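From the methods appendix. Each design record in this collection lists the tokenized structure first, followed by the designed amino acid sequence. Records were kept in a plain field format so they could be parsed without special tools. The example shown here is representative of the layout used throughout.

RECORD:
FOLD TOKENS (210 positions):
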């Protein structure tokens, strides 16, 4: 399908080697702001997927970034172990599990202090077996939304809505045509025109991150 932004194997939000080098300097505020801006929502999203509250997910993100600051000077990419994001995903997962263990201990202490029996533990939240893959999916979604946000300044609002319904919501052409009361041929024309600009914005975003 011509509206696919990238192949499944493509890295949707690459972390440039130059940025990783800059992060070794704790005084480089611009580099750290860029890093946090890129990964804060991704790390918090991964923690939330694993059952943490927004507050606890924020604490996990802070712990993750603190750990990155302490270890980035020794980090070296190793193809056998995967990309930087996979390393970051493992780190976020460990910190999330640490936070969940602390919560369970705190809940147990609260029950003991009250002199009552603890209730059965709630079921574990359904999560992916591969946190790195989950982080990749979140990163891809963030990149898509960033490109769509830029398009708002370039294309007709209705045309952008049409493209979003078709691309992100998966509406078939005939349903989109019926919703906007236009012909299927017009949908194809708009889809191709907006899709071309969308792919250009994706290309620019990836270039900015390299």
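DESIGN:
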């Amino acid at each position: 399908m011509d509206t696919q932004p990238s192949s499944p194997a493509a890295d949707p939000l690459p972390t440039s080697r130059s940025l990783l080098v800059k992060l070794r300097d704790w005084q480089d505020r611009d580099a750290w702001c860029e890093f946090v801006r890129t990964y804060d929502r991704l790390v918090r999203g991964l923690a939330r997927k694993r059952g943490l509250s927004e507050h606890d997910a924020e604490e996990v993100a802070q712990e993750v970034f603190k750990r990155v600051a302490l270890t980035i000077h020794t980090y070296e990419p190793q193809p056998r172990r995967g990309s930087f994001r996979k390393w970051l995903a493992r780190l976020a997962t460990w910190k999330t599990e640490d936070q969940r263990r602390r919560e369970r201990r705190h809940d147990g202490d609260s029950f003991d202090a009250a002199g009552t029996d603890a209730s059965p533990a709630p079921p574990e939240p359904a999560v992916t077996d591969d946190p790195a893959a989950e982080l990749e999916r979140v990163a891809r979604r963030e990149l898509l939304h960033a490109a769509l946000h830029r398009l708002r300044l370039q294309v007709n609002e209705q045309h952008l809505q049409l493209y979003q319904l078709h691309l992100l919501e998966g509406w078939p052409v005939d349903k989109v045509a019926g919703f906007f009361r236009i012909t299927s041929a017009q949908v194809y024309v708009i889809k191709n025109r907006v899709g071309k600009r969308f792919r250009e914005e994706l290309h620019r975003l990836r270039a900015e991150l390299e």
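APPENDIX NOTE: Residues 11-123 form a domain with the Rna Polymerase Sigma Factor; Chain: A fold (CATH 1.10.1740.10).
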